[in-house]
Design brief:
Elements: E1 4-12, H1 18-28, E2 32-43, E3 48-52, H2 56-69, E4 74-77, H3 83-96, E5 102-104, H4 122-132, E6 135-136, H5 140-147, H6 154-166, E7 171-175, E8 183-190, E9 193-200, H7 210-223, H8 228-244
Parallel strand pairs: 1-2, 1-4, 4-5, 5-6
Antiparallel strand pairs: 2-3, 7-8, 8-9
Helix pairs in contact: 1-7, 2-3, 3-4, 5-6, 7-8
């Protein structure tokens, strides 16, 4: 049940999001994480001050050497940043990752509001998602950017999921954490129908890296043989436990406690 997850994402120097959160999450849920780093960021809980992007060929080579030796049961993507990086990743997926499910977290904007995908890359990113993803996991601002819709209600979330599904994504999880209210609702739409996940909202400023954490948790479940709904359910439970146990570091949106296990807080 180990489950090999190749994470293709950016690095967060603050350790709360990006590749750091991904590796911690995969490990906590019993999987094995490998990585291909698409960008280096200088950031903390308050802001992103700089982004350094490696050559696209180097990003692709990281993926190729892992896939040719260790292999992967699921691939999770996060920050892509530029069109050349997207093209390089897509080429490897098309040639060396055929049949491996890909969970796409469309990282467009950081928690602090910094743009993490160049405007010129959005069209390529949309096309790449439709062609390669087994599941995409946009939050509300990301779903609005990808669809052009305004999302204010759960029904709006459903419409966005339906649009992305119609465009070719085989499964879509629209996350409702940005909506107001006492409940946190996520909408999953796939060929098997709709599943709505609802839980009590946790009032916390320690929410840095929640999207990365959830997507990597889902990817781990898929790598371990879980269905997408079951993988989402387990990843949500883990994420809630990690928020509740957050250490409270930093002056901004603080990191989670990725060291928790799902069993430590039952019935979330």
């Amino acid at each position: 049940m180990k489950g090999r997850v190749l994470v293709v994402a950016g690095s967060d120097s603050g350790g709360g999001a990006g590749i750091q959160a991904d590796i911690k999450t995969v490990t906590a849920l019993g999987g094995f994480a490998a990585s291909a780093i698409t960008a280096l960021t200088a950031q903390n809980t308050e802001t992103v001050t700089a982004v350094h992007v490696p050559p696209p060929d180097f990003v692709a080579e990281q993926m190729r050497v892992v896939l040719s030796d260790i292999g992967a049961d699921c691939i999770k993507t996060g920050m892509m940043h530029s069109e050349p990086i997207i093209d390089a990743v897509a080429e490897v997926l098309a040639t060396q990752a055929v049949g491996i499910p890909v969970v796409v977290d469309p990282v467009l904007i950081s928690k602090s509001g910094a743009a993490l995908l160049e405007d010129s890359a959005l069209h390529a990113f949309k096309a790449w998602i439709v062609l390669r993803a087994a599941l995409i996991t946009p939050n509300i601002p990301e779903a609005e950017t990808l669809t052009g819709l305004e999302i204010h209600t759960v029904d709006d979330m459903r419409h966005a999921a339906e649009m992305l599904f119609t465009l070719g994504a085989p499964a879509v999880l629209v996350k409702g954490g940005h909506l107001a209210g006492n409940k946190s609702t996520d909408v999953l739409l796939s060929e098997d129908g709709e599943v709505v996940f609802e839980s009590e909202r946790i009032n916390s400023r320690s929410t840095h890296g929640t999207g990365c954490t959830l997507a990597s948790g889902i990817a781990t479940g898929i790598a371990q043989g879980l269905s997408i709904p079951d993988a989402v359910a387990r990843a949500r439970t883990y994420l809630r436990a990690a928020i509740i146990n957050a250490p409270g570091y930093g002056r901004g949106h603080g990191p989670l406690d990725h060291g928790v296990t799902v069993g430590e807080i039952p019935n979330l």
